[in-house]
C-alpha cells in the first residue's frame, strides 16, 4: 500500500498526456498501427489494477464496450478506437482501426501522408482516458480516506 504522500504524487502523474506517448510525433502510418502502451510502465500497479477492476465492473457506465473477456474499447475517431486490454499483469492500451483505414495507414509512408488528423485522434483519446483516470483517482482516494 502506498502512503498518502506517495498516492498523491502517483495520482498527480496520472493523466493521459503524462502516461501516453503523443500521436502527433509519430512519423508514419506504421507507427500509428503499432501504437501500444504498457500501462504498468507508466502507472503505479495499484492504479492499473483499479482501472482494470473499474472497467470490468462498470464498462457500460463509463462509455466503453467490452470486446471480449478483458478487452474494452471506445471510439476516438472515424474508424479508430482506443482499446484497453486489462489482462492481469499485461494491461496495455492500443489503437484499433477499421480495415479500410488500416490499409490507408499501412500505405502512408510519412506523417504528411496520413489520412487522419493525429492531433484530433490524440485529443479524443486523451479525453477518453482522462475520464477513466479521474474515476481511478476518486477510487484511490476512497481507499485512503474511506
Short recap of the structure:
The chain is α+β, with helices and mostly antiparallel strands. It is 47% helix and 18% strand. Strands 1-5-4-3-2 form a 5-stranded antiparallel beta sheet.
Can you give a write-up of this model?
- By secondary structure, this protein is of the alpha+beta class.
- 47% of the residues lie in helices and 18% in strands.
- The protein has six helices and five strands; from the N terminus they run H-H-H-E-H-E-E-E-E-H-H.
- It has a five-stranded antiparallel β-sheet.
- A hairpin with a 2-residue loop joins strand 3 (71-77) and strand 4 (80-85).
- Helix 4 (45-58) crosses helix 6 (118-145).
- The protein starts with a helix and ends with a helix.
- The mean pLDDT is 88.
Spell out the key features of this protein.
146 residues; five-stranded antiparallel β-sheet; alpha+beta; 6 helices
Q: Report the uncertain regions.
A: none
Structural class: alpha+beta
What's the assembly state of these chains?
A: single chain
The main β sheet shows up as: 5 strands, antiparallel
Output the strand order for the largest sheet. Answer: 1-5-4-3-2
Helix fraction by DSSP (H/I, runs of at least 4): 40-55%
The ordered string of helix (H) and strand (E) elements is: HHHEHEEEEHH
Global Rg = 16 Å
pLDDT averaged residue by residue: 88
- Secondary structure tally: strands: 5
Number of helices, where a helix is a run of at least 4 consecutive DSSP H or I residues = 6
Name the beta content range: 15-25%
Q: For the record, give the distance between the C-alpha atoms at the N and C termini, rounded to a whole number.
A: 14 Å
**Which outline best applies?**
elongated
